[in-house]
């Protein structure tokens, strides 16, 4: 039996905490961290604890990660208007009631912060919140397709991009407002304007009264507190498009850095289910995997440091834009520390790397997830 300090040391090197197969030692007790880990208080940056993510396929509103660029705005819902302007034949100005009167849909989509995993990159320093694993979640979003508004407004032929303007502002006037734009093809495909989250009114922290959901893209594209949809011929030249959110790799020209857009294929180990307390038992490890447009093709598990891999079972039906639950069974034959690794492959054949290539802002870390379990 390892001593407490030695065991905690092995968990720290795994970088993800642990569950114990068998009875917990007396010193372990319940997890010290709450479901939401506070990374920043103003603006709010809350990360979902890794094991809390594994409780259900849908991430509950109160456990869903929170990421804001500026302080949360106070939006008067009675006076709220969503404008559609720019290169359209008929500009629109819709009240919240008018927006809700349009055809409504509920769709499950996974959101991941582009900086998820930033704190795990092997760099001396990366700018931004030091997220680990839990700046991701899967929710059922209720609202209307952006396509319905664009069709009603009548998009002009020269339109190539859609801009999303938001109500949040920086405390200092010289700081540019947060604004994102996406290609018109994406905007007219599967983008939603939502006002409900998991069957409840959209919470203020998550963008009430209305936010954008851009399936398959990192979360910064899914603008919160959206007030205006602008249809334009060119992408936005706002700071958050022109300079922010680019993969700037060491030694490469920042001016040529590719933009951060579609989510990279990724898998997380969220926990282990135990069948029996003896060292010789069948154990089940579980988690979630997701990707951008191609979706998840398969998930594999290794318990020998990556020397060999076995297939995991993908559970449930594939839902476009939502993560996929997976599980894998294997025999636990000896007591000690069990090293579990998980990697996913997307529909284009891209596989999670052992270590994602670091970049200056710590974006898109989809390195293979590893966890250590203490088998008694």
What number of structural domains do the residues give? 2
CATH homology group of the largest domain = Oxidoreductase, molybdopterin-binding domain
Radius of gyration: 22 Å
Task: Give the H and E element order.
Answer: HEEEHEEEHEEHEEHEEEEHEEEEEEEE
The largest pleated sheet is described as: 5 strands, mixed
Integer average pLDDT: 88
Helix fraction bin:
under 10%
The beta-strand count equals: 22
Distance between the first and last residues' Cα: 8 Å
Our estimate of the beta-strand percent is 25-35%
Q: Can you walk me through this structure?
A:
The structure is a single chain. The radius of gyration is 22 Å and the shape is globular. The protein contains six helices and 22 strands. Helix content is 10%, strand content 34%. The strands form five sheets. It has a five-stranded mixed beta sheet with strand order 1-22-21-17-18, covered by helices on one side. A five-stranded mixed beta sheet has the order 6-5-14-9-10. It has two domains: 142 residues, Immunoglobulin-like; 183 residues, Sulfite Oxidase, Chain A, domain 2 (Alpha-Beta Complex), CATH 3.90.420.10. The chain is mainly β. The N terminus is likely disordered.
